[in-house]
Structure formats: C-alpha cells, structure tokens
Amino acid sequence: MQAWFRFVGLALIWGSSYLLIKLVIRQIDPLTLVWIRLTIAASLFIVYLRMTGRVIWPEKGRGALIYVGIMNTALPFFLVSWGQAHIDSSLGTILTSTTPFFSLLLAHFLVEDERLTAQKIFGLLLGFGGVVLLSFRALGQVKTGGQALLGQFSILAASACYASCLIVIRRSLKHIEPIVIAGATLLIGAIAITPVMLLAASPWKVLTHADSFAWGMTLTLSVIHTVIAYFLFYSLVASWGPRASLVTYAMPPVGITLGAIFLKELIDTRLLLGGALILLGIVLVQARLKRPSFQPNTR
Predict the structure, then answer these.
(1) How confident is the model at residue 289, as a pLDDT?
(2) Is residue 110 scored above 90 in pLDDT?
(3) In a domain, 81, yes or no
(4) Between the CA of residue 161 and those of 100, 141, 165, what are the distances in Å?
(5) Concatenated DSSP letters for 222-277?
(6) Which of residues 223 and 114 earns the better pLDDT score?
(7) What torsion do the CA atoms of 213, 72, 286, 82 make, to the nearest 10 degrees?
(8) How far apart are CA 133 and CA 270, in angstroms?
(9) Which domain holds residue 261?
C-alpha cells in the first residue's frame, strides 16, 4: 500500500511540473529558473550525500557523469522550460513521455541485447503518428503556430537528451549508486549552466522583480519536483523494480487535468487522440524493453 502512495505522489509531482514551469516563466526567464532549480537541488543532494557518507564525485566514470549532468539536467531542463513558454502545459506533459521512443532507437544501435522487433516498430510508428497529429494541431493555431511548433520540437529534443542518458548510464555508470549519480549530475548541471545564464540572461533584474508566488513555485520545483521526486522514485524502484516506470503513463492525465483546471487550456479531440497514440505506443515499446534502474528526471 505504501508503494502505491509513493506511485500516486510521484505521478502528481512529475505530472504537475509543467503547470508550475508555465506559471513561473511568466516572471522568471527559463535560463534563470533552471539555474536556481539546479543550484538548490544540487546543494540539498550534496548535504545528503555528505551526511550519509557517500562519495560526491566518484573516480570512475567522470566523463559519463559530465555528459549526463549536462544532457540529463541543464540542457533538457532549459529546453522544457523554454518550450513551455510556447505550448500548453498539458501538451508538454504528453511530449515528454516520448522518451521511451528515443531510447528504443538509440538502444537498437548502441546496446547489443536491445533490437527492434515488429512490436516495437509498430509502437514507434503509433507514437510518431501521435506526435505528427499534435504538430498539425499546433500549426492550426494561427497566431502562435510557428512558435508552438518550435516549443514542441524543444520538448521532444529534451526527451531525446533524457533517452541518450539512459543509454550512457546503462553502459558506463552501472557501478555507481543511482542516488550518487543523481547528486553528481545535478551538481554538474548547475555548474555548466551558470556561465551561460550569466551571459545570456539578466538574473539580477529578474530576481528583484519576481513576486513571492514565483519564488514559491521555483522552490517547489527545486525541492519537491526534483529532490523529493528522486527519492520517491528510487524508493518505488526498490519496491516494484522495473514496474516503477509505469509512472510514465500516469503523468499525462495529471498534466492535462491540471492544465484544464488552472490554466483553462483547451482539451480537444486531436490532443486526446495524439496523447492516446503516444501512450499506446509506449505500452508496446516498453512491453519487453529492458530498462536501467535509474530514470532521468524528465520534468
């Protein structure tokens, strides 16, 4: 029963991430938001790793840790935040769930025991059909069609980043405890995005103008949607094993519902059909797809 509570909690946390990001970026630009989120989360993880006597920066696999730190936190966090400025939060939730499709394609070429089968190809085609349908839906928005399409591509690119990290972790970081990977990569992400943020954004101006609501949502994203979500997921993996990945299916309904309630986002036939095709494709792709115990934070 406790595992089910953790599952529901994790689905609510990750499924609501896109709503919070959508609200925060009205006052804080994506680069500054990601920098704050990663800095706070990394700091909390470092404290935890120190208190539990774990190594913060393992000697082996540092190159892979740097790659995952950038491609699993800094870059995709920015891509998702920037993309959410141009599309609905509900659509962002759906598109992020496409990570297994990219994992499937990369695993076929990079992992010996993961090859495309007829079932996986069919699932991949279904998911691609869902993405195409959602893209035509964005083009139908006359005023923001171009920007909405770029926003979708941005989030799909973030999903591809997450998928590449799954492969790297599986091939090069299996010897490191997942919680250590999480802390080290969050630290790398925070360090990597700092100079970019200082050069490309105006953090001090933004930070002085953001109100208490924006700060509260930013702290929530940092502490609950990043740090606590990691611990919930690892606890769920310990109880359920690979079945913990089922949380992927619960995220879109949460995101769609919250977007409709709090942001009055449109729920139409194409959104529901596109989302259904993507989720059905994921079911087929993951039916017998071996997955590592570590999942990237895709929120």
Answers:
(1) 47
(2) no
(3) yes
(4) 11, 27, 6
(5) HIIIIIIHHHHHHHHHHHHGGGGGGHHHHHHHHHHHHHHHHS-----HHHHHHHHH
(6) 223
(7) 50
(8) 7
(9) 2-286
User: CA–CA separation, 130 vs 157, rounded Å?
Assistant: 16
Three-class secondary structure of residue 219 per DSSP? helix
DSSP state, 6?
H
Task: Supply the pTM of this predicted model.
Answer: 0.89
At 151 the three-state DSSP class reads helix
Whether 180 is covered by a domain: the verdict is: yes
Rounded distance between C-alpha atoms, residue 95 and residue 153, angstroms = 9
Backbone φ, ψ for residue 54 (5° rounding): -90, 160
Question: According to DSSP H, which parts of the chain are helical?
Answer: 2-24, 30-51, 62-69, 75-84, 89-96, 99-110, 118-139, 145-172, 178-200, 203-209, 212-222, 229-240, 247-262, 269-286
Q: Tokens 């959410």 appear where?
A: 84
Q: What's the number of domains the chain is made of?
A: 1
Closest CA to 38 of 192, 257, 268: 192
Tokens of 67: 């790659």
Does the residue 292 lie in any domain?
no
Look up tokens 């993996």; give the residue. Answer: 237
Residue 217 has pLDDT above 60, yes or no: yes
Is residue 293 included in any domain, yes or no? no
User: CA 64 to CA 245: how far, in whole Å?
Assistant: 23
Q: Among 40-44, 140-144, 156-160, whose mean pLDDT is lowest? A: 140-144
